[in-house]
Amino acid sequence: MTVFSKKFTSGICATMLSLIFLVFLVQCDSSSGPKYDPITVEGKVVAAQTNAPIEGALVRILSPLPEKHTVTDEEGMYRFELEVDSTTRYFFEYSKEEDEYITQTREITLVPEIDRSLSDIRMRREGEAADDDPDDLPPGEEVGPPHSIVLFEQSEDFLHLKGVGNIEQASFDFRVTDAAGYPVRGAEVTFKLGESPGGGEKLYPDTTVTGGNGIAQTVLTSGTIAGPVQIIASVEGEDEVIFSEPIKIGISSGKPHANHFTLKVETGGHKLEQEDEVAIMALVGDRSGNPVAEGTVVNFTTNGGVISPGSGRTDEQGRVQVSLEYGNPIPSDGYVTITAKTVDENNSDLTVTGEVLFIQPSVNITVSPDDFEINQLIDKRFEYTVTDSRGNPLAEGTSITVEIDNDDYKIVGHVDETVGAGMNSGLGVTDFEFVVRRVAEELSGRPVTITVKAETPSNLSNEFRMTAESFAGEGSMPQSIVLHSQSHDAIYIKGEGNVEQAELRYRVTDADGYPVRGAEVSFDFGVTPDGGEHLSPETVETDNEGIARTVLTSGTRSGVVQIIASVQGEHGMVEARPVRIGIASGMPHPDFSTLRLERTKLEDGQEMSVSVTYGDRYGNPISSGTAVNFVTTHGIIRPGSVKTDANGRASVTLEYVNLIPDDGWGTITATTVDENNNELTLTGSVLFMIPPIEIEVTPNTFNIDFESDQDFTYRVTDRNGHPLPEGTNIIVDVESEDFEVIGDVDVIIGRQTTPGPGATVFGFNVMSTSDEPLDRPVYIRVTARTPGGASATVQVTGRKQKIAR
Questions:
Q1: CA 312 → CA 160, 285, 302, distances in Å?
Q2: If you write DSSP's letter for every residue of 687-727 in order, what string do you get?
Q3: Which tens digits make up the pLDDT trace of 452-487?
Q4: How, if at all, do strands 271-272 and 349-358 pair?
Q5: Beta strand pairing call for 319-325 and 277-284
Q6: Nearest Cα residue to 548 out of 563, 559, 561, 528
Q7: Residues 11, 12, 13, 15, CA torsion sign
Q8: Contacts by 524-528 with C-beta closer than 8 Å and gap 24+?
């Protein structure tokens, strides 16, 4: 290892300056490409012994040319305005000969549009004892091998995403010192990324050499994803590689983007009563979906009530929260629009809106029909609405109750409701219904009173009351049969440990709409999957309410079951509308589960589909929406988790990346859960081609006379001896018309993964077709080219001449 004397004279410094200038001068071509605003570079020169500023020190930029210079002011400060159009290495010199200060030098990498404030230059006079600055070495000592590498200076604390018009680059100076703490010149330093968001961020250079002050510099350029970036510097020590502590710098988000700008209303706050207020939040993201930079301004306006404050700045999560209070002005329809506005990456206005409903302080209830009669054998259905005076829904949390004061009857339906967040009129929000049903064997004959009551969270309330007499009635011949209720819309195949039965209830009525008691109802199948499903009972009589009940039990096949109920009427059979119930398939079963690879081999730059198909224990496709997780030992698989479609299938993409196994083999694993809640795992293997392509031809030369021939064997593999990717084309040709080549001369590689004949080993024969000797060499070329564009060629050289027989 080269060592340096610790005692420098000004003459030696000048010589070293010339050498450093020749060795380390790096200037990036700025003759073309985009132009940038000038940057400011400033620093300070002080005396090493007293730390006092040095006035009148000459500061020169020796490269890149043309040379620039300035002198320090009374505070020891200097400043340059530099036009930097690309990442460029600059060489600074500091001197003051009249006070016998020792000349010093510094190398620094500058990047476009990033101002730099450099660390102080500490200068000492000839003969002064060295202070604690490790740039100065005691007389008679030599610099040892690298012992430590630490961060000396960095230009920025955080960066912004690439392409958003903000700071995208930061420089990092690392200092290499020996065991005594003195800087090591000429040490090769390597830089690499540790943790990073994976958005294309990069370091340049990734390897450089320390200057006279032991400093090595690299520049980080941000990518398209926000997050922390970890930078690690290393240098070869005397016995081992020495690493710096990982340096972290944050890449913050870009400017607001329309696709990631959202306005949210606090849960439960979409409808406001008087004296209420609600939190409104703007969530602002950049074009990549990352939160925008903290402090981004968002302005808020409203056409109703008061919003406070009128503007705010985003936090580190890209959020701004304000408050909307009920108050004037109140829009005539009650719907208030809140608008949030910010500025996007093109300095254009970006807006997003949200809506809140201001409720009038009133509760209106209407019931239809509002007068009624109740028959002992028939249900009575009622519809009712609950709104404010504008017809809008009441506040979330409003309670609605329906009560009946006669034990001969019960009420079912919307009889105990709590209004939710819905802002538009509709069933369950403003529109409700209930049914009055007889439950007593004998009626008491007392009047029936029904009360509908509503009360808001702010204690606004109202009620509607109606009374009717009850009387008896009789049903006659069946006129109609309809589905009254069913317990499930879908069931599962038999033996899956899930719902296997569905109850269906049909009502039979006469011509006047009264229920018919004792009518015989038959149940039959229409369409079925024919998996052993059945109905029980198949025939039954209606009860006092005119109800007939049957139960469907599933079989072993998935599909749709059609059920038809019929009853004998006065003029023939009366049928209900067919009812369809789905029988869903079961959970994945290993006997009917398969993993498929689009191809068996993959090369750099390629990707392929990996798919799975799952069936249940009976071979039916499993239900759509079953989650499947994929992992791979090598390459990248995306997405990592998917759900099956209606055919029990799911697929992902496997992409070749640089991290490839030494033996070339990678394993893809798909995992889901079977019917016993155990993991069901499927695996497949793929062969990653590892370059370079290797071609070996035997023999590697030839000498053929007229009408004689030569057999050749050749072997084509990747680095590990594996077959090349499917679709690879191997061509054998001879450049002379005096020869004919036959055999494996135009080969397309198939799906083979095992080395051997037809996969990696081939052969051909070369025959002379002329009796004239050639006075020049003859070349046979074997060329292999993969679908991804990788190629290699091997040339065999021989001759053709007359040979004595």
A1: 21, 15, 15
A2: EEP-SPPEEEEESSEEEE-TT-EEEEEEEEE-TTSPPPPTT
A3: 999 999 899 999 998 876 554 445 688 899 999 999
A4: parallel
A5: antiparallel
A6: 563
A7: positive
A8: 524/563, 524/564, 524/566, 525/561, 525/562, 525/563, 525/564, 526/562, 526/563, 526/564, 526/578, 527/560, 527/561, 527/562, 528/559, 528/561, 528/562
